[in-house]
Design a protein that fits this description.
230 residues; mainly alpha; Lysozyme; 2 domains; two-stranded antiparallel sheet; 10 helices; globular
Length: 230
């Protein structure tokens, strides 16, 4: 798992700065998509369908994190040794991208069968003469989410009304979770949640007098904080 983290960090340092984005962990999705040659919109659509981008998500089927990696079967297959590792958002996204790439190759880049395999299990799909109805419904849900991801990407970047880059959420719970993650990982800044005039929940950053360290900048960049570069 350390190898994955180091590769992800090395890629983050080399990627050019993009415009501000409203999606948490956007940089992680971008890096993982490039690293494993998976369409970015497909990767994000799977995350939207699986967990609604919730890094703390856990299902009744014992799947964990943003990409809902199943424990222990799929996780162990991907080299994960502890279930707690699946709650590292960027690592979970990287694992999901790696698994999607594997399934795309296995299914000759048939996206519908790939998604069915992600949802239903590759061996069960391989053995089925026809895709199960539930797997087909899942593939359709991802397809719809993919359309929404593309539409959102085409819209103007989201900023706070004060002009300070930030991240907006529809859900107060998700906003608080993202702020809590940042407060845990970034030393020289504080992250707070407040309501905007439009009713969204904004995570804003206040930097200490000492300023951001290089490590803080790297962390923020990898987690998708807008306009942050190490």
């Amino acid at each position: 798992m350390k190898r994955f983290a180091l590769v992800l960090l090395a890629c983050a340092i080399s990627v050019a700065v993009h415009a501000a984005e409203a999606q948490p962990f956007q940089r992680c999705f971008e890096l993982a998509a490039r690293m494993h040659d998976v369409p970015l919109d497909l990767l994000m659509a799977v995350a939207a369908t699986e967990s609604n981008f919730d890094p703390d998500a856990r299902s009744d089927a014992n799947a964990h994190g943003i990409m809902q990696i199943q424990w222990p079967g799929t996780a162990r297959h991907l080299g994960v040794r502890r279930v707690s590792e699946l709650y590292n958002p960027c690592l979970n996204i990287t694992l999901g991208a790696r698994y999607l790439h594997e399934l795309l190759e296995r299914n000759d880049h048939d996206v519908q069968r790939t998604l069915a395999s992600y949802n239903y299990g590759p061996t069960r799909i391989d053995a089925a003469r026809q895709l199960p109805p539930s797997a087909m419904r899942y593939a359709e849900s991802v397809h719809n989410a993919r359309t929404r991801v593309r539409t959102a990407a085409a819209q103007s970047p989201t900023r706070l009304s004060s002009g300070v880059p930030g991240v907006l959420f529809d859900s107060a719970t998700r906003a608080r979770r993202f702020a809590r993650t940042l407060n845990t990982m970034v030393e020289n800044a504080r992250f707070d949640v407040h309501r905007t005039g439009s009713g969204a929940h904004a995570v804003s950053m206040q930097v200490d007098e000492a300023g951001l360290t290089f490590a803080d900048a790297r962390t923020l960049y990898s987690l998708g904080w807008p306009e942050t570069a190490p």
